[in-house]
Amino acid sequence: MDKHEGFMKALKCRECGKEYPLSATHVCEFDFGPLEVAYDYDRIKQSLTRAAIEARPHTMWRYRELLPIAGEPTVGTQVGYTPLVKADRLAKRLGIRELWVKNDAVNYPTLSFKDRVVSVALSRSKELGFKTVACASTGNLANSVAANAAAAGLKSYVFIPSDLELGKVVNSLVYGANVISIKGHYDEVNRLCAEIAGKFGWAFVNVNMRPYYAEGSKSLGYEVCEQLGWRTPQHTVVPMASGSLLTKIHKSYQEFAKLGLVSESNWHIHGAQATGCNPISAAEKAGLDFFKPVKPNTIAKSLAIGTPADGFYALRVMKETGGHADDVTDDEVRDGIRLLAECEGIFAETAGGVTVGVAKKLIASGKIPANDSAVLCITGNGLKTLEAMVGHVGQIREIRPSLREFEAMLKDEEKQPVTV
Ligand SMILES: *Cc1c(COP(=O)(O)O)cnc(C)c1O
Ligand SMILES: [Zn+2]
Fold first, then answer.
1. What is the CATH number that goes with domain 43-65+111-213?
2. Which parts of 40-92 are beta strand (E)?
3. Nearest ligand to the C-alpha atom of residue 16
4. DSSP conformation class of 419
5. 247 CA to middle of ligand 2, Å?
6. CA-based angle 265:271:277, to the nearest 5?
7. By Cβ atoms counted within 10 A, which residue in 58, 66, 104, 372 is the most buried?
8. What residues have CB less than 8 Å from 384, skipping those under 6 apart?
9. For residue 305, which atom of ligand 1 is closest to its CA?
10. CA-238 nearest atom, ligand 1
11. What pLDDT, on a 0 to 100 scale, did the predictor assign at position 4?
12. CA–CA dist 67, 85 (Å, integer)
C-alpha cells in the first residue's frame, strides 16, 4: 500500500500473523483466521497524550489515532463519550464496595453501543469507495446501520431474524433502509449475508468490513479509563453476543497501558450471557477453551448468537485476565432491568438485564470480590424492547379526575400497600 493509511499498518491474521492490504476483507486465505488491524504504535505514542485527548471534543473520535480510518471521520462524528455513572444505590443492592455503569443506552444516534462500531465501519467504507452498506443484525446493529447510512447518504440493506422486537424493526424502517427479515435465527441470517457479501460489491459492516467495525468497540474501553481518571477498572462486566465487544475492551486496556496512558497492567474482564443462549458462558464454567454451538431461546434477542464468531477469543481473554462468565434466566433478566431502573434511573434493554443479573451472581459467588470496584457495560436502551417488560412492571391505577377519589385511593393503599 503506497496510499496514506493514517496510523494503520496492515490487516493481520490473528492466527499466523500474515499481513494483508487494508481492503474490505476479513479472513486469512491460509488458515481462515480472522484479520485484525495492526497499528504503528510508535507514531501513535507521539500524538496521543492525555493532554491531547482532553483538548478534543467529547466523542469517541477523541481517540482517533487508535481507530482504523485513514483520514478524518465522515460518519457518526458525534458518537460516544456516553456517561459513566457512579452507581452507589445499585452497589449496595449487589453487595459491592464500588460500582460504575457505562451507559451506552444513551449513545448517539440510535441508543446502543453499536453506533460506535458502525461509525467506524461506515467511515472506512466511504474511504474504500462503497456506495451500499449492509449488515447481519440481532437488532441494534440494523438500527445503527440504517440511521448512520441515511445521514451519510449511503444506500443500506439490513438483514434481521424474523422474530425481532417491534421497536427494533420500526427503528430500522423509519430511516428508509431496505429491511430484509429472514425466517431463521441469527446464525442463518449471518450465513446468508456471507454469501451475499461475496456476490454483491457491498460493504457488510460485520462481514467483509469486520476488522474495521470491531475496532470501534475499543472506544467504550478508552472512555471508561479516561472517565475513571486515567485508570483501568478492576472488574469489567460485558454482555456477549459474538464476544467481540469483550475482546475489544480488553484490547483497549492493553493499548492504553502500552501507550502509557494508564499505569495498571492487571484487570479482570467478565462475560455475561442469557441462559437461553449461553455457548460462551457454558464453556467458561466448564473450563473449556472451545464452545459448543446452541440454538437460541431467550428474551435477550440482541445477544442471541448461537455460534459466536469471537467466542474462542472471548474465552481466552477471560482466562488470561482471571475473569469469569455466567448466564441468567429470562426472569433474572427482567429482575436486572428493574433493579437498574429502580436504583439508578436507567432503563436498559434485555442485554442490560443480562449484565446486571450476571454481575449480581459473580459478586454473590465471590468471583468479583465484595471489596473491589467494577464497571457494568450497559449497551442498549429499554425503550426498544418494551415487550420484554410488559406485564412485569407493576400496575397503573386509574381514577376519575376527582380529588376525593385520589384521596380515597391513597387511604386504601395505606391499608394495603401496592408492590411495584
Ligand atoms: C451487539 C450487542 C452486544 C454484544 O455484541 P458482540 O457481538 O458480543 O460484540 C451487546 N449488547 C447489545 C445491546 C448489543 O446490541
Ligand atoms: Zn492466517
1. 3.40.50.1100
2. 84-86
3. 2
4. P
5. 19
6. 160
7. 104
8. 111, 112, 139, 140, 143, 165, 167, 168, 171, 349
9. 7
10. 10
11. 80
12. 25
pLDDT, residue 413, reads 83
Residues with CB under 6 Å of ligand 1 are 112, 114, 140, 239-245, 302-303, 349, 351, 379-380
Distance in Å, CA 367 to ligand 1 centroid: 23
Nearest-ligand number for the alpha carbon of 115: 1
Cell output for 236:
469489567
Q: Whose CA is nearest to atom 10 of ligand 1?
A: 239
**Closest residue (by CA) to atom 7 of ligand 1?**
242
Pocket test for ligand 1, best of 110, 111, 114 (most atoms within 8 A of CB): 114
Do 328 and 357 form a contact (C-beta atoms < 8 A)? yes
Domain range list for the chain: 43-65+111-213, 84-109+215-388
What's residue 419's pLDDT?
56
Give the domain 84-109+215-388 fold. Answer: Rossmann fold (3.40.50)
Question: How many angstroms separate the CA atoms of 326 and 393, rounded?
Answer: 25
Q: Locate cell 493509511: which residue?
A: 5
| Cα–Cα distance for residue pair 347/201, rounded to 1 Å | 39
- Helix or strand holding residue 155 (H, E): strand 155-161
Confirm if 376 and 399 have CB atoms less than 8 A apart. no
Low-confidence ranges of the chain (pLDDT < 50): 1-2
Same CATH topology for 43-65+111-213 and 84-109+215-388: the answer is: yes
Query: Residue 383 and residue 67: Cα distance in Å, rounded?
Result: 30
Residue type (1 letter), 59: T
Type and span of the H or E element at 317: helix 311-321
φ/ψ of 226, rounded to 5, equals -65, -45
Separation CA 50–CA 68 (nearest Å): 20
What digits encode the pLDDT tens for the residues 274-284? 999 999 999 99
Amino acid symbol at 395:
Q
Phi, psi of 66 (to 5 degrees): -95, 10
